[in-house]
Specification:
With 511 residues, the protein is α/β, with parallel strands linked by helices. It is 53% helix and 18% strand. The chain has 19 helices and 16 strands. The strands form 3 sheets. The protein has an 8-stranded mixed barrel with strand order 8-9-11-12-13-14-15-16. Strands 2-3-1-6-7 form a 5-stranded mixed β-sheet, sandwiched between helices. A hairpin with a 2-residue loop joins strand 2 and strand 3. The longest helix has 39 residues. It is elongated. It binds ligand C2E and calcium ion (2 copies). The site of one calcium ion has 4 residues, from loops.
Length: 511
Amino acid sequence: MPQFKNPHRSTLFRLTTIAACGIGSLAMGMWGLQIAFGSNATFIPAETAGAIIAALFVLGSSCAALAFFAGVDESLQYVHQETQLDKLTGLHSRRAMIGRVATAGATTERTGESVFLIDVDIDRFKQINEAIGYGQGDELIRTFARRLQDALPRNAEIGRLGAGEFGILIKDDEIDLPIEAFVQALIDRLMEPYQLATHLQSVNVSLGLAAVTGDGDDPVQVLRCSSLALQHARATGLGGWAIFHPDMGRVADHRQWVESELHTAFERGDFHLHYQPQLDLQSGKTVGYEALIRWKHPERGMIPPNEFIPIAEETGMIFPIGSWVLRKACSDARLLPDDCFVAVNISPVQFMTRDFLTVVRQAIQATGIAPSRLELEVTETAMMQDRERAAVVLKELAGMGISVAVDDFGTGYSNLSYLIDFPFRKLKIDRSFVSRMETDSNSGAVVSTIVGLSRALGVRTIAEGVETESQATLLKAAGCEVVQGYFFGRPGPLQLRDSAETAAAASATMH
Ligand code: C2E
Ligand code: CA
Ligand code: CA
């Protein structure tokens, strides 16, 4: 812990002040004595009374002075702890880190030594905290902070910048690996599960890196740069980390705009749903529709979900939006043929909340659709945040008769053991495998393996992002049961659902 020293109040200064107070009080005491008793005091000699009062004055004022300065010291210590240290972890506070960055900047300018500021953030910490409770959330932060300290060289300065966000100041010559390898090793270590009192908690982390250049940079600006790099890493999902580039400022402005506009957009009714058909590959029949949200802004036009869903997740706007999607899709399902289901995307943030099942139940009750006509698309990442809770939620959903498809299968978690514990009905093969099937034999092998795996588990497979006839043929040969993609039908408003295009594409592949 850094030692604090008050430069303006040395011991000599304090003693001098106390002595001065004492002498001042003595003089005042003498004066008071003269006024109070003068020559009329009879019960004790005026000189003795004067001496006693003056001595008391001296003692009192000296104590007062001592207490005052001790108090000053204590409050300085208190202020230091409040402002410079993070109470939960004992690391530097955000304010202290700004000071450290300023110092690092000055040193870099003098010595030419490179220093990096790394911003590490636990993805969706707010939601994790709400789901596991604040006590366990604190424990997660403390354990995370300890692991961070263990993983870094001793001279690295570490601070807590936000709830689940940490800053690291590290000199280039203290990093004994190429920066890419160093960052990746750090991410891997931080993403190992954390043992909490009741369960093993998995987290995802994102990381942004900015160089402290020392050419007069405002330290707050350096922090902003590392934070922009972090947001960029998170938004693009590029393996969890990014190095700052000036273009990121413009992206951040757009994000800021989206964030400020989401609430109004929701209230104004800018959102609507498009539906994309899912077809049975054997019969060519449409068996369901995936609901995909669309935001049409009155001035800026269409804003794709990938641009606003992550921001809605961070700000909590995903709750009203997600509930609305669920209810609207269930209500629209009544307009679809009776033997078709609607598939609704569930954000990991929604899936983790305590009232998620209630929201689902309410949507079903309010719209009166049969639960078997609702399918929820949940990603592996969402299920892996808290496996035990996920297992309970999935069991409840299965009990209600609602089917769950594992979305983007193959891109997330590598440990497949969860497939045995979790009740779900479908694996949805990610588009990235389908799009490479024709050119890359490995992707074809992955698809066949997933189909084999689902058969062994007794669940169905659906392939997404099917764009060509030959992809559809390869999928059929691999034994995939359901398909979805531009080749069979693009997402569109409800009335376009049975376009002639879909039927023609389907029949071309089936026969
Ligand atoms: P996703 O769940 O993987 O949805 C499939 C995405 O692939 C959709 O993009 C769809 O339009 C697109 N797509 C479908 N067929 C093809 C194809 O053949 N080729 C290509 N290249 N793309 C195809 P979209 O609508 O832009 O949605 C993107 C993502 O946004 C979705 O990915 C999903 O994660 C999220 N999303 C969309 N709607 C919702 C929603 O209502 N709630 C939540 N939580 N997330 C949503
Ligand atoms: Ca989906
Ligand atoms: Ca998907």
